[in-house]
Specification:
about 250 residues; alpha/beta; 6-stranded parallel beta sheet; 9 helices; globular; binds 3-methylbut-3-enyl trihydrogen diphosphate; binds magnesium ion
Length: about 250
């Protein structure tokens, strides 16, 4: 049932030079389902399969960091309750079922976001997989769950305010590193490439701090159909970019 576009035959992905951290806004599950006359939840279920395929593909290719936007703070409060409950149940099932995928591929699993608001049983499974995989030293897979870029920065600001109030930090010492050190995962590197599926040209509150110089690639494919072909295209496209970080391109501009 998964799309024609997803050529998922034995395929080795080549990670371009300089691409350490790939972040993906996994969008279009609802539209994928609607276009087939199916319920939105069916699209989410297919989307979970894509998470497994893309995670495996990236880990096998030797990518260092993969961060997937699975649920925003806005989704958590604005989507119908039954859809959110379905997503939480799907997440729990995914974390249990994909334990072998994570361990066999030497992946370190982490989450990003306000998962403390999730039901206890979901939290428990997330923590179990995080702990189990904590000494794996292959790719780091982060799922952004009940995540918001603005919430993350607001939470960091709150920590800084408290540190100043309690005398652990001087106002004059507050700089970019002070904020970075108080993000949800301070060791997570900046995003090199941000991919968004399903065509929307927006960031939707994802990793606002970390994408500051990230390259952006948007494709029309709905997430359940996203496959090797799209990934290869994203990699080739990234490889053709001149990243300047505000400086000049060498040797052309030297
Ligand atoms: C992305 O698919 C998954 C989540 C946001 C949970 P959507 O559910 O946003 O799908 P569309 O955008 O309605 O097609
Ligand atoms: C972004 O997709 C969130 C996730 C992929 C988890 P949305 O579908 O929520 O974004 P908008 O509403 O189209 O901006
Ligand atoms: Mg969407």
């Amino acid at each position: 049932m998964t799309g024609e576009n997803a050529d998922n035959s034995n395929h080795v992905l080549e990670i371009p030079e300089g691409l350490r951290h790939l972040a993906i806004i996994m969008d279009g599950n609802g539209r994928w389902a609607n276009s087939r006359g199916l319920r939105r939840t069916r699209g989410h279920k297919e989307g979970a399969g894509t998470v497994r395929r893309i995670t495996t593909l990236c880990a096998e290719a030797g990518l260092e960091e993969l961060t997937l936007y699975a649920l925003s703070v806005e989704n958590y409060v604005k989507r119908p309750r039954h859809e959110v409950e379905f997503l939480l149940a799907l997440l729990k099932r995914f974390v249990i079922r994909e334990r072998a995928t994570i361990m066999d591929n030497n992946i370190q699993f982490r989450t990003l976001g306000r998962t403390e608001e999730f039901p206890r049983s979901v939290r428990h499974e997330l923590e179990k997989l995080r702990d189990l995989s904590s000494t794996n030293d292959g790719m780091t897979l982060r799922l952004a769950l009940n995540y918001g870029g603005r919430s993350e920065i607001a939470d960091a600001a709150k920590c800084i305010a408290l540190d100043v109030k309690e005398g652990r930090l001087a106002v004059e010492d507050v700089d970019e590193q002070t904020i970075q050190d108080r993000l949800y995962d301070p060791l997570m590197p900046d995003v090199d490439l941000l991919v968004r599926t399903a065509g929307e040209l927006r960031v939707s509150n994802f990793l606002l701090w970390q994408i500051s110089y990230g390259e952006i690639f948007v494709c029309d494919t709905y997430w359940p159909d996203f496959g090797n072909k799209d990934m290869t295209q994203a990699m080739l496209n990234y490889g053709s970019r001149n990243r300047k970080f505000g400086g000049l391109v060498r040797p052309v501009d030297a």
